[in-house]
Design goal:
Layout (H helix, E strand, L loop, with lengths): L9 H14 L3 H7 L4 H8 L7 H11 L3 H6 L22 H13 L1 H17 L1 H19 L13
Helix pairs in contact: 1-3, 2-3, 6-7
Length: 158
């Protein structure tokens, strides 16, 4: 059987260590606050192992640590509680589907992580296409902001 080699990003350990240092705890006390062994914290910080899902979620729960930041370096180290209200945006024809997804993401950290991880890969792989799409839709938005005059059937009759 072929053995699968684990790939661990050493920067992940450095980002995890930053969360610990910001908390003011040593490895032992930080581990206790996350209900893990001190060796787990030590191994993650040294870049010898990646933090598991439960460790990421506990760090998020206790310290508001951003799992996407720890694993991928995406976003800020800490999640804010004053998030943007998605009701303020119009997502077009897919509005209801996007609202439902955002609602589920608000309740599921693993879904947030998956969407951000996939979205990041997609953004990097399709950068030119996305920039062109944004430019096209930005032009449309400027036209849509202009007041529209509704023409009724009877407007042309005198």
């Amino acid at each position: 059987m072929k053995q699968v080699e684990k790939v661990v990003n050493p920067l992940c350990g450095k980002r995890f260590k930053r969360i610990r240092e910001d908390s003011g705890f040593n490895q032992r006390d930080f581990a206790a606050s996350l209900d893990v062994a001190p060796s787990t914290v030590s191994e993650v910080e040294a870049g010898n192992s990646a933090p598991g899902y439960s460790l990421l979620m506990k760090a998020n729960e206790v310290y508001k640590a951003n799992p996407n930041y720890i694993l991928l370096g995406i976003g800020e180290p800490y999640l804010r509680t004053n998030a943007v209200n998605p009701d303020e945006f119009d997502f077009g024809a897919e509005h209801e589907e996007v609202q439902e997804l955002l609602s589920k993401m608000a309740r599921s950290p693993i879904l947030r992580f998956a969407v951000v991880a996939f979205g990041d890969k997609f953004l990097h792989s399709n950068k030119d296409v996305i920039e062109m799409d944004i430019a096209v839709h930005a032009k449309r938005k400027t036209f849509e902001k202009e007041p529209r005059r509704r023409v009724r059937k009877n407007d042309n009759k005198e």
